[in-house]
Design brief:
The structure holds 2 protein chains of 2 kinds. Chain A is α/β, with parallel strands linked by helices. Chain A has 19 helices and 20 strands. In chain A, the strands form 4 sheets. Chain A has a 6-stranded mixed sheet with strand order 6-7-8-3-9-10, with helices on both faces. A 6-stranded mixed sheet of chain A has the order 16-17-18-13-19-20, with helices on both faces. In chain A, helix 4 crosses helix 6, helix 13 crosses helix 14 and helix 14 packs across helix 15. The two termini of chain A are 31 Å apart. Chain B has one domain: MetI-like (MetI-like fold), CATH 1.10.3720. Chain B is built from 13 helices and no strands. The two termini of chain B are 32 Å apart. In chain B, 44% of the residues are buried. The chains are: A alpha/beta, B mainly alpha.
């Protein structure tokens, strides 16, 4: 008998002016011990299905049609049993545990809320649960607070919490998105084992095809609130039948071979007319960059023994202060026109390197030479600004990297104004319009505010701003990690085209190895603030030398 | 929608304000609309007092002691010329209230403006630079917050009384009140601005401006300030009510505005003397005006908070 059955589910968010239908006519079923993957891009309605099953829809959202039944009983009738029969694992383990209570208190509270057991029994059960989710030395660790656990361990605690009530169904909403690859693999194995052993049905909501391929038994693909395809994982991934699924799978960056361009998600229900191609090399962006002549023998950027540390405990007496070495002894060169990849897990110091290169942080030790000049020896502010102008940066989060109170044209014009690159306002406007055309947004976008754009479009604005000073060196700090696969492909292709047309030198920071393989000429691997391997991209992927690199490549999600 | 809008591809500012979420929240709450109408009417009448008041309470020539203690027009013995009656010196109470509201609103607005200016500046530098600047500013804030506004006002008043010649004192009383109210409000503004600034400072758009090469002052003024103004507007509105009330309290206590130049608080103080002798209108109408004004300003502040600052809800 089907464990969970969703029939013709439609979820609506009535608004002041129109009603937004987040989920339209979705029919799904889930068996005991089965893992059902629910994939789709952001806004596809996959999380809404999960919250609707839990009955946790935020008002004014409501189920306007359809039924959800658990063992043949409508879930609305057993609303008070929701936490017992169905539990949920959330995306961010940092915020889904209460920091004020120990793990023990949270587990025991949850167990006793659902079942009438004594405190001692609950404790014994909690310890057993923690052990079963792979936490070593559970008796001791149960007394600790959430902040004493690492991200992956915390997600295990969250899973233990979800198991407290012996649920029949677990809804895991992007359970590994906030985690590093190595930890992601462990958590996925854990979820798979739990489903098998306990006969729990799991709905795994994710945007990541790699996660689905490794974990799910069946896959449901959603697009714009509708279900476009359901089938076994093998079938959907290797023989997708719907056009959207096909292009979505093709767009996942491949880690195994290097391609010229990223395949795009070609399936779209909006018809946007293709924009005219720009001959960038004859464009003003391509011309007249000072010093752009090929002095290629010398590296453009040369970093030696770079280090920085941040205080973790501040004190008046120096001997009482504590520091953490965010970056230690990093050395690398980037040749003119080269793309250097910088990979590593979170906290490895790669973003800190970027921030030192771009001048946000002052390096603690070591030197950064740009075009033969040591940045630390440039003292006159005019000279420093002249160098700064040639180094620009694209940030990770397109939602916070643009000032929400400024119009797009003001944002893009800011570097031009600051560096006084133009002689008149009309010239500035013309250049801004040009830049917005180059990033394929169109000049009309300038009059709007950032919130009127999607994530991918915002990232294009960010690129336009970075290009406004005609830089020679572009730092891309995880430029696509906040974006959907289809949009990631567009942005990466745009970056590739711009690099070729403008002969840009690029430092490309990413935790996504397949993307790095496609984008970069050479790759540096960082761990704990140090560079542990630096090699040509193909050599690194085919014959990794450092043990850590081998591990990263082994864990690289594959379809 | 008016027919004019349909020709315009981009609707006018007024229409966009009406159609925005804030406008919708305003329209859909009758209490807020009422508060808005009352506040606009009262503040408008106060500003236009010299034009609409039937008498000039400052003009001693127009005051006739014979008219003193006339009850409101609808009561027995009332005179239609004095709608709300007169006080013990024969001044028309309606005119006195209009002028008094003007003084109160002006004192409130100026002190809030001063407090907001100082609070924004100090809060921005504390939040942006952090470290020693932050510690210094926030300790001053802490110290300031340990003094109640009334005590500060009494202190400043006492000091100015001893330092200044007696005849100058009455002229300066209004500035004492403004200073005292501003001193008691700015720490709240500074705290809020500092907290918001610390959040905004960590956003990538601030880093983007740093990469462009913008200096700290430009970043604070152009990037951070517009993004921290929401909560400041809320605090300013709510504190306008507080400041008007504070002025009234101080004037009632006799520290503030002299009787010759009435404010709402002064009028209430005068009325208070007659509360047992039957001339209650002298207390009731200034008091009612004050209550209505502060209530409507506070309701507007609540609406603004709901719209602009979901965190404070």
């Amino acid at each position: 008998m089907t464990l969970l059955s969703i029939q013709n589910l439609t979820v609506e968010y009535p608004g002041r002016k129109s009603t937004f239908t987040a989920v339209r006519d979705v029919t799904l079923s889930l068996e005991r011990g089965e893992i059902l993957g629910l994939v789709g891009e952001s806004g596809a309605g996959k999380s809404t299905v999960g919250t609707a099953v839990m009955g946790l829809l935020d008002p004014p959202g409501r189920v306007s049609e359809g039924t959800i039944t658990l063992d043949g009983v409508d879930v609305r009738e057993i609303a008070q049993l929701r936490g017992r029969r169905i539990s949920m694992i959330f995306q961010d383990p940092l915020t889904s545990l209460n920091p004020m209570f120990t793990v023990e208190q949270q587990l025991i509270d949850t167990i006793r809320a659902h079942r009438d057991v004594s405190g001692a029994e609950a404790l014994a059960e909690a310890v057993a649960l923690l052990a079963s989710v792979g936490i070593a030395d559970a008796e001791t660790r149960i007394r600790q607070y959430p902040h004493q656990f690492s991200g992956g361990m915390r997600q295990r605690v969250v899973i233990a919490l979800a198991l407290c009530s012996n649920p029949d169904v677990i809804i895991a909403d992007e359970p590994t998105t906030a985690l590093d690859v190595s930890i992601q693999a462990q958590i996925l194995v854990l979820i798979r084992d739990l489903a098998r052993e306990r006969g729990v049905g799991v709905i795994l909501v994710t945007h990541d095809m790699g996660v689905i391929a490794q974990t799910a038994d069946r896959v449901a693909v959603m697009y714009r609130g509708r279900l476009v395809e359901v089938g076994t994982t093998q079938q959907v991934i290797y023989a997708p039948s719907h056009a959207y699924t096909k292009s979505l799978i093709a767009a996942v960056p491949r880690g195994d071979i290097k391609l010229e361009r990223f395949p795009r998600v070609s399936y779209s229900e909006d018809t946007t007319p293709p924009r005219a191609e720009f001959a960038l090399s004859s464009h003003w962006l391509g011309k007249a960059r000072e010093g752009a002549a090929a002095r290629s023998a010398e590296p453009l950027v040369s970093v030696r023994d770079l280090g920085i540390r941040f205080p973790t405990v501040s004190a008046i007496l120096p001997r009482n202060r504590r520091y953490i070495d965010a970056v230690k002894g990093a050395s690398f060169d980037i040749a003119q026109g080269e793309v250097l990849g910088l990979v590593g897990e979170s906290g490895s110091g790669k973003s800190t390197v970027a921030r030192m290169l771009s001048g946000i942080y002052r390096p603690g030790t070591g030197s950064i030479r740009f075009d033969g000049r040591d940045l630390a020896t440039v003292h006159s502010s005019r000279e420093r600004q002249a160098i700064r102008r040639q180094i620009q940066m694209i940030f990770q989060d397109p939602f916070s990297s643009l000032n929400p109170r400024m119009r797009v044209e003001t944002i893009v014009a800011e570097p031009i104004h600051h560096n006084r690159l133009t002689s008149s306002e009309a010239e500035t406007r013309a250049i801004v319009a040009d830049l917005l055309e180059v990033v394929e947004l169109g000049a009309a976008a300038g009059r709007k505010f950032p919130h009127e754009f999607s994530g991918g479009q915002r990232q294009r604005i960010s690129i336009a701003r970075a290009l406004a000073t005609r830089p020679r060196f572009l730092i891309c700090d995880e430029p696509t990690s906040a974006l959907d696969v289809s949009i990631q492909a567009q942005i990466l292709n745009l970056l590739k085209d711009l690099r070729d047309a403008l002969n840009l030198t690029v430092l490309f920071i990413s935790h996504d190895l397949p993307v790095v393989r496609q984008m970069c000429d050479r790759v540096a691997v960082m761990r704990n603030g140090q560079i542990c391997e630096l090699a040509e991209t193909e050599a690194l992927f085919e014959h990794p030398k450092a043990e850590y690199t081998q591990e990263l490549i082994r864990l690289m999600p594959q379809i | 929608m008016s027919p004019k809008m349909q020709n315009n591809p981009r609707p006018s500012l007024l229409y966009r304000m009406f159609d925005s979420d804030a406008g919708y929240k305003f329209r859909s709450s009758p209490i807020t609309v009422l508060a808005g109408v009352v506040a606009v009417l009262m503040i408008g009448a106060a500003i236009l007092a010299p034009l609409i008041a039937p008498f000039d309470p400052f003009n001693k020539a127009s005051i006739d002691l014979m008219n003193s203690l006339t009850p409101p027009a609808w009561q027995q013995g009332g005179n239609p010329a004095f709608l709300l009656g007169t006080d013990d010196q024969g001044r028309d109470l309606l005119s006195a209230i209009l002028y008094g509201t003007r003084t109160s609103v002006m004192v409130g607005a100026i002190s809030v403006l001063l407090a907001v200016t100082a609070g924004i500046f100090l809060g921005l530098i504390a939040g942006y630079f952090g470290g020693i600047v932050d510690a210094l500013v926030m300790r001053i804030v802490d110290i300031q917050m340990t003094f109640p506004a009334i005590m500060v006002a009494l202190m400043i008043d006492g000091v100015s009384r001893t330092l200044l010649p007696r005849d100058r004192h009455d002229d300066l009383a209004i500035f004492v009140i403004i200073l005292a109210m501003a001193l008691s409000i700015w720490p709240q503004v500074a705290r809020t601005v500092r907290a918001s600034t610390m959040v905004e400072r960590g956003r990538e758009y601030v880093q983007a401006a740093q990469v462009i090469g913008r200096g700290p002052w430009v970043i604070m003024a152009r990037h951070v300030l517009p993004n921290v103004m929401g909560p400041v507007l809320v605090i300013a509105t709510i504190n306008l009510g507080v400041a008007i009330l504070g002025e009234a309290t101080l004037s009632f206590l006799g520290v503030g505005i002299p009787a010759s130049e009435p404010s709402l608080g002064t009028l209430i103080r005068i009325g208070n003397n007659f509360i047992f002798s039957g001339e209650r209108w002298m207390l009731i109408y200034p008091g009612l005006t004050l209550a209505l004004l502060v209530l409507s300003v506070n309701l507007l502040g609540d609406w603004m908070r709901d719209v602009l600052d979901p965190k404070l809800r």
